């Protein structure tokens, strides 16, 4: 799973070096390649396990979050704030967790995110028991901490990876989210019965299961993610007292954004990830409403969304393979083309053409996956090592805000012009990415970025 042979060249991008152009670069790890290979294999296995555990809790909570918010608030209009709170929580915690990773390693940062999510799940249950909507929203905001850890786990999979298989390592961890995304909602019924058994509202029960899954994920990364892949992949990366004290302070957000903007490949990586996420969220959140207007049953809506989620995660190893074989920029371009095809198909489909819309949603998930895997990999390897974690956290912050904004605007757009206008508007968001792709320097070989 995402492993690379010990004979793979151990090269890490540093300023002035570009393996895709045949430029030599220096290793930044003081560990032998064979040892770093073992660290990478173990890290990917642990991260896959933690993604499954955490994903069960995240997906289960998201599945009932809107219903719980509606029940406690007594307002359908306020139910949408549940998903918005979780997305904003993940975005707000992205940078602090990245800074913690830079200071102390991936292990404490990922564990902290899951523990914050655990606290949020408990607060959501308390809010449901007390009938306090504000407390439920606060809980859902903190619940986003688990989402933030799940997203940053994909970067942890690249810390000790060889450049030749870095995208595949990242994609395998993304793929593991599939298990949680499928299992979590299917455990909602069990969670409801557990909740009733302990005296809490049935819709709050899945959050009890989420708290357990987050605790298990935190324990897994804390106990098993050793050696820490981020510390192992950098000079002096030892898990010893005081080892993190010498690690450089992370730059402020403004400095990080300027640095990303000054590196064409990094800029493309971040914009591609944020754009794909905005397009996906904007269309996805309104598709159930559109299908409902077309007479689709709740069961059919669930099937369509399941197909979409499968497209997002199940094919991510293929996207990682493409990014390693064809190059990051090429794979981003493929993702944009798939997204464009999804939007054209969705805009042209009749409201009753449920099968066509399902195909469009599958393509929407595949395009998102391609852009996320290739864009995240390109971003990570295009910036200097000392600021890499800060850049990754900043990208997740921008990604979350882009998704939340698109989700908030999607409703008014659908109401004003229908599903075709929503898809057309989402299509306009792809233009800046295509412009950045066209401006990327030409590569002599596919390598890592071309």
Automatic annotation (TrEMBL):
| MF GO annotations | transmembrane transporter activity
| UniProt topology in membrane | Multi-pass membrane protein
Query: Does the record bear Cell cycle in its keywords?
Result: no
Report the principal subcellular site: membrane
Q: Which InterPro entries match?
A: MFS, MFS_dom, MFS_trans_sf
Keyword Iron in record:
no
Please give the superkingdom of this protein's source.
Answer: Bacteria
Q: Which residues form a coiled coil?
A: none
Q: Which UniProt keywords apply?
A: Membrane, Transmembrane, Transmembrane helix
Start and end residues of each Major facilitator superfamily (MFS) profile domain: 43-444
Protein name (Swiss-Prot/TrEMBL)? Predicted arabinose efflux permease, MFS family
Q: Which organism is it from?
A: Blastococcus mobilis
Lineage of this protein's species? Bacteria, Bacillati, Actinomycetota, Actinomycetes, Geodermatophilales
